[in-house]
């Protein structure tokens, strides 16, 4: 049945085309946008330069008016108060000047002459008294903002210069040059800006003086609100706003620090983004055409691949039913190779059918002739395979156990633990492992008798679910032999313990007699006799030490004490107190890392550390001994290390030194009996661990041993 959730090869190819094409299209779009941003930045810089040029042009216009006013202020007619002659002179200046008219105003604001009219006509007072006061009080030229001139009946701009009229010494009058907004309009038009650019010249109060678009509508009005705030903050910049016409635009502006007048140039956002959108639409159209063509090609190729795969599917189904398969050449090389392989496999399977039947027969023969019991159970622990060896070992015939639960072969007291063990093994996912972890496990015969076994378990996932196979062996005879050997070893240990203990009394007597002989007869004996007495005393002392070490060696297993929690740090302090004389005498330094709390025989553990640390102090020839004790956590045990800087041990002696009475040095070089490390190994083995060493001659040795977390006990199958 075809699954609707699994995509077809055609959809996969279509997705691949999209995955390959879409990033390229997105990258092109990003590049277009990046180019737009760079073009926008260049435009801002160009427009800012144009705005600065226009600001300078406006300032130059004001400077030209000021120069004309200063030239007129030096006229003799003005000094002689001949206003008629001065009127005629000022009128002549206007012929070649962009100033609309000149005005002479006295300190009271009365216009004395105005070239906009004939001399002698009645003139009103000035409409800009504030500018007159600024000019006369400051003595400097002043540029007014745009205001309505009543005499001319239009908006004007005054450039006023303080002058002296007559023979007086003070500045008593204001000579004014009047400019019209139309003059600034010409300055804007002379720049030849593109039609979509909106350029504005504004006075110091941000009122429109000149504008490239709809000047009649906006002259005298304030510029766009956003521009007003920006002009107060900075003298130049660029930002986006909505123009007075309501058009979103990018505005670049510059403000004169001298006159306070400013120029702003706005570019509609629509004009800025037109090229970008045109490029993006072209890109989208090209991408759509490319995607459609690629998808069409993918559809055709996908169809050819799908046809070849359908041919393989039919062949595979025939192969599954054991039918002969012969496929024609397919149009795709890899698929054709698979087709040839299927055809070859069909031929091989046809030839191997009989071989498989023979193999199954041989396997049944092996199972039935095996000396070990082989039992297979399903996921519900029901027996599905049970060979003849299992019948012999458990006493149950095949027909009485098939389909029954495995627990019928396990003692009742172990069944719960067995189920937990199998559950953990199944969860681990390992294919096989031994059962019992090296300890005895037990089975139950048809008679109800329990008997020790060894077993290994394996698991296999099949179409019907998991199956578990157990291979087990009756080890009753071996267990009995082992128990007999343990009893024999215990007897030997007990004998060694008693013999060593009984030897101590006569040795003490011999030692006492030798001391008495030396004390009472030393003056009556020659040097040879005294030497023999001294050698006898030394031999007795060494024999006493040997006897004591033999007792310690025998006590490891003969004097069995229960295991209790042992704080290793506290135990090490006790060991160092016992070794205090040796540590001080040799100038030794003993250190340790963080040590754990373990479970064991405290007395034997003290003896273990005492021997290892004592050896590290003793076997150090030409330098102060340094010994370090450390411990680290492993999977199921603590691993301890005792490291020294002593003489080291050759690698060929690493196993030999743990044997009883093994010494690598003479008694004169280093004293001892050769039993200490044998005691260490026996203590570690009794605790269920192992001991070994690494060493470098002349540099030192490291003795390592493990102490497990748990200790052996009988567990179920």
Characteristic key phrases:
about 725 residues; alpha+beta; Beta-Lactamase; 6-stranded antiparallel beta sheet; 18 helices; 24 strands; elongated; disordered C terminus
Largest sheet: 6 strands, antiparallel
Helix/strand-derived category reads alpha+beta
CATH topology of the largest domain: Beta-Lactamase
Q: Kindly state the number of beta strands.
A: 24
Task: Output the CATH homologous superfamily of the largest domain.
Answer: PAS domain
What is the CATH architecture assignment of the largest domain?
2-Layer Sandwich
Shape: elongated
Give the helix level as a range of percent: 40-55%
Computed CA radius of gyration, to the nearest angstrom: 58 Å
Description of the molecule:
The protein has 717 residues and is an alpha+beta fold. It has five domains: 9-42 and 280-314, no CATH class; 43-271, 2-Layer Sandwich (Beta-Lactamase); 323-369, no CATH class; 370-474, PAS domain (Beta-Lactamase); 561-717, Histidine kinase-like ATPase, C-terminal domain (Heat Shock Protein 90, 2-Layer Sandwich). Helix 1 (9-73) packs antiparallel against helix 8 (269-320), helix 8 (269-320) packs across helix 9 and helix 14 packs parallel to helix 18. The longest helix is centred in the first third of the chain and has 65 residues, at 9-73. The two termini are 45 Å apart. 25% of the residues are buried. The model is unreliable at 711-717 (pLDDT under 50).
């Amino acid at each position: 049945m075809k699954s609707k959730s699994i995509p077809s090869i055609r959809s996969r190819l279509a997705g691949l085309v999209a995955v390959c094409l879409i990033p390229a299209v997105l990258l092109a779009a990003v590049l277009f946008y990046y180019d737009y941003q760079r073009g926008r930045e260049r435009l801002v810089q160009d427009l800012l330069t144009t705005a600065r040029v226009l600001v300078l042009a406006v300032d130059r216009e004001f400077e030209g008016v000021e120069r004309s006013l200063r030239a007129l202020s030096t006229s003799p007619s003005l000094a002689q108060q001949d206003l008629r002659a001065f009127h005629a002179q000022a009128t002549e200046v206007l012929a070649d000047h962009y100033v609309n008219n000149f005005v002479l105003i006295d300190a009271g604001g009365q216009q004395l002459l105005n070239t906009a009219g004939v001399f002698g006509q009645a003139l009103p007072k000035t409409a800009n008294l504030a500018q007159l006061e600024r000019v006369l009080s400051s003595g400097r030229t002043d540029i007014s903002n745009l205001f309505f001139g009543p005499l001319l009946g239009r908006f004007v701009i005054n450039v006023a210069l303080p002058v002296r009229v007559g023979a007086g010494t003070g500045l008593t009058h204001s000579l004014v040059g009047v400019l019209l907004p139309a003059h600034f309009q010409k300055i804007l038009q002379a720049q030849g800006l593109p039609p979509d650019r909106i350029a504005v010249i504004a006075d110091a109060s941000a009122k429109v003086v000149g504008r490239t678009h709809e000047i009649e509508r906006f002259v005298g009005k304030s510029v766009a609100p956003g521009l007003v705030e920006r002009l107060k903050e900075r003298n130049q910049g660029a930002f986006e706003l909505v123009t007075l016409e309501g058009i979103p635009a990018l505005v670049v502006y510059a403000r004169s620090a001298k006159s306070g007048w400013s120029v702003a140039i706005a570019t509609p956002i629509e004009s800025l983004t037109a090229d970008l959108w045109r490029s993006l639409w072209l890109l989208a159209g090209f991408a759509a055409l490319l995607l459609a063509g690629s998808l069409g090609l993918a559809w055709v190729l996908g169809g050819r691949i799908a046809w070849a795969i359908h041919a393989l599917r039919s062949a595979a189904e025939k192969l599954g039913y054991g039918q002969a398969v012969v496929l024609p050449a397919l149009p795709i090389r890899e698929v054709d190779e698979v087709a040839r392989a299927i055809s070859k496999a069909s031929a091989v399977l046809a030839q191997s059918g009989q071989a498989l039947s023979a193999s199954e027969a041989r396997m049944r023969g092996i199972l039935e002739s095996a000396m070990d019991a082989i039992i297979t159970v399903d996921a519900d622990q029901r027996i599905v395979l049970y060979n003849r060896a299992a019948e012999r070992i458990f006493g149950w015939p095949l027909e009485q156990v098939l389909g029954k639960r495995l627990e019928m072969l396990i003692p009742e007291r172990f069944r719960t633990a067995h189920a937990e063990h199998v559950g953990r093994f199944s969860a681990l996912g390992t294919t096989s492992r031994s059962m019992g972890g090296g300890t005895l496990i037990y089975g139950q015969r048809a008679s109800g008798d329990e008997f020790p076994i060894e077993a290994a378990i394996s698991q296999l996932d099949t179409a019907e679910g998991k199956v578990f196979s157990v291979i087990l062996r009756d080890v009753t005879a071996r267990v009995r032999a082992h128990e007999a050997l343990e009893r024999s070893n215990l007897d030997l240990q007990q004998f060694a313990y008693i013999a060593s203990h009984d030897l101590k009394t006569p040795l003490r007597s011999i030692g006492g007699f030798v001391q008495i002989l030396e004390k009472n007869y030393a003056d009556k004996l020659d040097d040879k006799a005294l030497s023999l007495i001294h050698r006898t005393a030394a031999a007795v002392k060494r024999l006493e030490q040997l006897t004591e070490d033999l007792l310690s060696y025998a006590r490891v297993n003969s004097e069995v004490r229960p295991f209790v929690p042992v704080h290793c740090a506290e135990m090490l302090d006790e060991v160092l107190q016992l070794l205090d004389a040796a540590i001080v005498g040799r100038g030794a330094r003993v250190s340790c890392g963080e040590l754990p709390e373990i479970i064991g025989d405290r007395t034997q553990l003290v003896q273990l550390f005492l021997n290892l640390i004592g050896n590290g102090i003793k076997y150090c020839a030409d330098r102060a001994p340094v010994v370090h004790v450390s411990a680290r956590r492993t999977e199921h045990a603590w691993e301890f290390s005792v490291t020294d800087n002593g003489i080291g041990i050759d690698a060929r002696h690493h196993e030999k030194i743990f044997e009883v009475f093994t010494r690598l040095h003479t008694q004169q070089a280093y004293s001892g009996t050769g039993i200490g490390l044998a005691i260490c190994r026996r203590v570690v083995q009794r605790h269920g661990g192992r001991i070994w060493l690494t060493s470098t001659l002349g540099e030192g040795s490291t003795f390592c041993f493990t102490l497990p977390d748990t200790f052996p006990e009988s567990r179920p199958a």
